[in-house]
Amino acid sequence: MCAKKKTEDAKPAAGKGASGVDYNNPYESMLARFNAAADILKINDRERAILSVPEKVVNVNLPVVMDDGTTQVFEGYRVIHSTAMGPSKGGIRYAMEVHADEVKALAAWMTWKCAVVNIPYGGGKGGIKCNSRALSVDEKERLTRAYAASMSEVFGPDLDIPAPDMGTDGNVMAWIVDEYSKMNNNKYIPAVITGKPLLLGGSKGRTAATGRSVMTTCIQAMEKLKMDPKKSTVAVQGFGNVGSYGALLLEEKGLKVVAISDHKGAYYSPKGFNIKRIFEKYDLRNTIDTWIDKEDKDAKRIDNKAILELDVDVLAPCAIENVITTENAHKIKAKLIVEGANGPTAADADEIIHKQGIMVVPDIVANAGGVTVSYFEWVQNRRGHYYTEEEVNDRADRIIKEAFEAVYQMSKDKKVGMRLAAYLVAVQRVAEAVHLKGKY
Ligand code: NAD
Question: Which residues line ligand 1 (CB under 6 A)?
Answer without folding.
Answer: 164-167, 210, 237-243, 261-263, 304, 318-320, 340-342, 367, 370
